[in-house]
Write a structure and sequence with these properties.
binds arginine, 10% strand, Isoleucyl-tRNA Synthetase, Domain 1, globular, Gyrase A, domain 2, 21 helices, Rossmann fold, aminoacyl-trna synthetase, single chain, alpha/beta, three-stranded antiparallel beta sheet
Length: 563
């Protein structure tokens, strides 16, 4: 329920001459300390109009304000502090959640509009980096959040499956590669070949010429080149799929860079017809000086198209195919210039819909404060990270709950969930440090803590072994329950915030808060005691588990029933 709305309506009636309902609503604050009530109205907003001291206004308003959902009103300094009727509000909120279950907080802002989400997008023949992991899990959570507010997300893996590196790989493979090795460990072997190519090319520049020639062959559709490319791509993709399976993440499309090969000519033609192409030392560019950006490099002097050319084709293709309401690109912050250029070129082409494209950038994952980089071969292999997280979770389960059924499965849900949750709980633009030991702890601000809280709630419900009755009064009047209820009631608002900011961390932080409030409640209340509020308390426990599960689901994290 929107109790702010009720308070705003009641206050507005009293100040109708001076403020509109919207103004009152906007002015309402949530006091920092619960002792100051649940909602506060700053009376100084009326001081000028009424020509009175704010304290006096607060006093008068406090005296007049009354409603069934309001327990008491206190003027504190220039504020009118409203204390809600805990019993009445709790009753309403718990009824709402009991009726709507996981649908609580669902909205229809999107009106079913399509939203392509460009996410994950690793490069063939290279390992998925921690940066790609971020893109994958943030993109997936955003897709869930967009869906929750009524959009139709389309998850697109824009694979890096084209480019001059394939010329290098082919040369390296033909010189030093072996089929068995590639089959056994595709990404490792292809990366090794790639690294060796660079090392040897330093000494022998002819290799670079050969690589260029092989890439040219590939572009021209040479059979051998195409065959090797297809093979490298499918072997790599199979490795990537293992990780996506572990994460439980699926895609609607794997149209990567190569998909746009036959769409390049049209892009160049469009740009040419718009009269915005210029030549610069043999290269073909779009000047973006009026946007204060570097020129967009469309074609190299040898005619090869570039990253941005493919993104132009992709953007146009997505608009035509999906007629999107919004188009998202979940890609690291370091590419923000690229996406500015992309939008600018589309605007130069006269496409207003470029405004609906949003780059959703994110920061780096560091270790011991240092950037992780692929170049120096210091890649953390994601699969290893997820396996290690699972092992560490299993260790904790063995300590805490050694007799748990299907321990392995739960350990996987907890270990993988821990890594995903840790990634999502930080504001996406912040860089953050990754320390696996810390990430998988059952205590602290971690995914396992939230999962554990949910499992604990479910275990209370199992112990109670009671049919929950929602046809009756569910009013509870205790301070710890109240903190929980207020948070539960806030869930729809949290989802809207997460959606508006493209920020899954809002949901992750919320699930931590709700878990903390619930654990406080549980620590201070005898939930199972047989009295006339037992049913209401159990309905509260059930509501908490419902919302924690829904929150975790939105983040792409599983909720094991027992752990
Ligand atoms: N493959 C690129 C990389 O690893 C990311 C692609 C992002 N998506 C896009 N449409 N440009 O850096």
């Amino acid at each position: 329920m929107d109790y702010k709305k009720i308070v705003a309506e009641e206050i507005q009636k009293l100040v109708a001459e001076h403020l509109t309902y919207d103004q009152v609503y906007q002015l309402l604050e949530v006091p920092k300390y619960t002792e100051h009530g649940d909602v506060a109205f700053p009376a100084f907003a009326l001081a000028k109009a009424l020509r009175k001291a704010p304290q006096a206004i607060a006093g008068e308003l406090a005296e007049q304000l009354a409603h069934a959902y309001i327990e008491k009103v206190e003027p504190i300094g220039p504020y009118v502090n409203v204390f809600l009727n805990k019993k009445a509000v709790t009753d309403t909120v718990l009824h709402e959640i009991a009726a709507e279950q996981g649908e609580f907080g669902t909205a229809n802002i999107g009106l079913g509009g399509n939203v392509p989400i460009d996410m994950s997008s690793p490069n063939i023949a290279k390992p998925i980096s921690m940066g790609h992991l971020r893109s994958t899990v943030i993109g997936n959570a955003l897709a869930n959040i967009m869906k929750k507010v009524g959009y139709n997300p389309i998850k697109i893996n824009h694979l890096g499956d084209w480019g001059t590196q394939f010329g290098k790989l082919i040369v390296a493979y033909k010189l030093w590669g072996s089929e068995e090795k590639v089959k056994a460990e595709p990404i490792n072997e292809l990366l090794t070949l790639y690294v060796r190519f660079h090392a040897e090319a330093e000494e022998n520049d002819e290799l670079n010429d050969e690589a260029r020639a092989w890439f040219k062959k590939l572009e021209d559709g040479d059979e051998e080149a195409l065959h090797l490319w297809t093979w490298f791509r499918s072997e790599s993709l199979q490795e990537f799929m293992k990780i996506y399976d572990m994460l439980g993440i699926t895609f609607d499309s794997f149209n990567g860079e190569a998909f746009y090969n036959d769409k390049m000519d049209e892009v160049v033609e469009l740009l040419d017809n718009a009269g915005i192409l210029t030549q610069d030392r043999g290269a073909t560019i779009v000047d973006l000086e009026k946007y204060n950006l570097n020129p967009a490099l469309i074609k190299k002097s040898d005619g090869a198209t570039l990253y941005i050319t493919r993104d132009l084709a992709a953007a146009i293709y997505r608009k035509r195919t999906y007629d999107f309401s919004m188009s998202l690109y979940v890609v690291g912050n370091e590419q923000s210039n690229h996406f500015k250029q992309l939008k600018a070129v589309l605007k130069e082409l006269g496409y207003d819909w470029a405004e609906d494209m949003h780059h959703v950038p994110f920061g780096l994952i560091t270790q011991g404060g240092k950037k992780l980089s692929t170049r120096q071969g210091k890649v953390i292999l994601l699969e290893e990270v997820l396996n290690e997280a699972t092992d560490l979770s299993l260790k904790q389960i063995n300590e805490k709950n050694p007799t748990l059924e299907n321990k392995e499965e739960v350990a996987k849900a907890v270990g993988v969930g821990a890594v995903v949750f840790h990634d999502l709980k930080n504001d996406r633009l912040n860089n953050f440090d990754f320390d696996l030991e810390e990430v998988v702890q059952f205590e602290g601000e971690t995914g396992p803590y939230v999962q554990y809280t949910n499992a604990r709630g479910l275990s209370i419900l199992r112990k109670a072994d009671a049919e929950l009755e929602t046809a009756y009064d569910l009013g509870l009047d205790d301070a710890y329950a109240w903190e929980v209820v207020k948070l539960l009631n806030n869930f729809p608002e949290i989802i809207l915030q997460a959606y508006e900011k493209f920020e899954p961390s809002v949901v992750a932080k919320y699930t931590i808060q709700l878990s903390q409030a619930f654990n406080k409640y549980y620590g201070n209340t005898k939930v199972l005691v047989e009295d006339d509020q037992r049913n209401a308390r159990l309905v509260l426990v059930k509501a908490v588990t419902t919302i924690l599960q829904e929150g975790l689901r939105l983040l792409g994290v599983q909720s094991p029933e027992k752990m």
